[in-house]
Amino acid sequence: MHFNGKKVIGYTVVVLIIGIVLGPFLVPIPELEDVMPVAELAGESGDFLGVRGVNVYYERRGSGPTAIVLLHGFGASVFSWREVFDPLSSRYTVVAYDRPAFGFTERPVTWNEWNPYGSDEQVDLLLDMLDQLSLVDVVLVGNSAGGTVAARFALRAPERVKALVLVSPAIYTAGSATTWLTPLLRTPQMRRLGPRLVRGIASSGGNLINLSWHDPSRITSDIMEGYRRPLRAENWDVGLWFYTSSSRPQTNLSVELAALDRPILVVTGDDDRVVPTEDSERLAKEIDARLRVISACGHLAQEECPTEFLRVLDEFLTTI
Fold first, then answer.
1. Residues paired with residue 141 on neighbouring β-strands, in sequence order
2. 78, 69 Cβ separation under 8 angstroms
3. Predicted pLDDT of residue 51
4. Going along 153-278, which residue ranges are E strands?
5. What is the pLDDT of residue 141?
6. What top-level class would CATH report for the domain 46-317?
């Protein structure tokens, strides 16, 4: 029997292509268990605000003349500000909200042109929220990826920002590692498989929390539960995948921030293993911002070292 090598290779390539194209649609995706609507999951501590068709969970406390808006990082929520929320609200008007894909904010699975998970759209959403809440001149305090959103907002609408506080901000790393993967992440095949892939965070998320603390032995079961609770929200896996695949890096953020005519404070822990302490020190130097490094502290200074965090924040706010 005579075999045509080129035909065999050709048939093999065709079979592989078919497998790659159709295979993901044949993989069974089990339904999430023990999930519920965010309105039932959130409890009574906060409220929901309709922003461009998305029900955004937020909490607002205090009535001071200075308004502070808190923006959490990746995998976090309003919960990450629990240690500093009440102390701040005794002196300031304080608002914290769950960004789309996190916390108790609704996870849309369809939309028209405005993608609530997109990087630019996160700025749109915050701008609309401030309008609805009648907040004009605010201090933005952003942790990690929330620092990136805060920075982008300040550059887009500097007239709405009184000052900027960047807590271990992911300025140099936001989205850059996956830029080349973006076209693949947005294919129909990955749109189907992606939510299944991110479900691993439900079991491995504790490792990231431990990495975020200088002393993980201080992480209690209540803290772990506070982070895990949003993973019971309807479509949390779909929302997290859309967030991941919708991110667009902005590589010149530090350059643009250097030209921003607003007071800026950079805060970091001396043992930040998520956004290395050196990155925050570098950023403060490049943009000529004030820098405060908190001793014996990790990536989540507002959680692990709240007393010192409040001290440096108050010190900064008294000067603006």
1. 70, 165
2. no
3. 97
4. 161-167, 264-269
5. 98
6. alpha beta
> Phi then psi for 169, rounded to 5 degrees?
-75, 140
Token pair for 298 = 């990790």
One-letter amino acid of 7 = K
Q: Please report the pLDDT score of residue 207 as a whole number.
A: 86
Q: Which two tokens stand for residue 104?
A: 């108790």
φ, ψ at 249 (rounded to 5°):
-70, 155
pLDDT along the chain (320 residues), means of 10: 43 39 48 85 92 97 96 97 98 98 96 93 98 97 97 98 98 61 60 71 76 97 95 93 82 92 98 97 97 98 98 96
Q: Residue 246's CB: how many other CB atoms inside 10 A?
A: 21
User: What gap in Å lies between CA 58 and CA 68, rounded to an integer?
Assistant: 13
Give the side-chain half-sphere CA count within 13 A for 4.
4
Please provide the distance, in angstroms rounded to a whole number, between the alpha carbons at the two ends of the chain. 86
List, in sequence order, every residue forming a beta bridge with 161; answer none if it has no partner. 138
Distance CA 53, CA 152 (A): 22
Angle of helix 82-89 versus helix 306-317 axis, rounded to 10: 40
Q: What is the pLDDT of residue 11?
A: 36
pLDDT in the model for residue 3: 42
CA angle 170, 42, 64 (to 5 degrees): 65
219: its two tokens: 């992480």
